[in-house]
Amino acid sequence: MAALAFVGERYRLTQARLADLASIPIRWRRGSGSSAYYPRRAHGFDRPHILLRVPRGATARWHTYRRARARFGTPPGGIELDVRVLAGAVLVHELTHAVQHGAAGDGRRRFSEVETTENEIEFVRRHAPAAFAQLVPVLRQKRATAAARKVGRGAARADAPRGLAALRAIVLRTAGALAALVRTASAPAPQPTRRRRGRSPTPTGS
To answer: Which one, of 134, 148, 107, 120, lies nearest residue 204 by Cα?
Structure first.
């Protein structure tokens, strides 16, 4: 009920539209895995429904999507959260998807995991302030990378040699490259190695 009331307040839903949202069937499952909103008939339901997975135990790890426009997200290891608050946050996430698909009567709107993440975070802020305080800022990777490249280019230009010093540097680099080529040709072929790829934590709601 807390999740439904939160979404109703967030989108200023009328009682009729809130009733439409409340009528969406929810399949509750205990255990690990992602939750989801299904906008079409599936799993024995002839209309949209929600799969809500609630971890076993009194607490569980909360993971959000990392979206820069949402400004904050959970750290890589997640945040320990009371399982009842976690269930409410995940339900807010999926009810937001229902609103995006027009289940509240306003028509279909833009699908966005930013919107769901913002709502999820705000719900936790209200019901678990200590967990909210553990969120970390999410920065735009492209901007950070571009800024680093710009600084790098500026430093390279400042340190670049000129005139005879530049010619000498070119000769030394060429000689070094030829020496490295000779060493490579005479060295035994390296044995192939396998790299293990790490996986990012899966968000609690999808």
So the answer is: 120
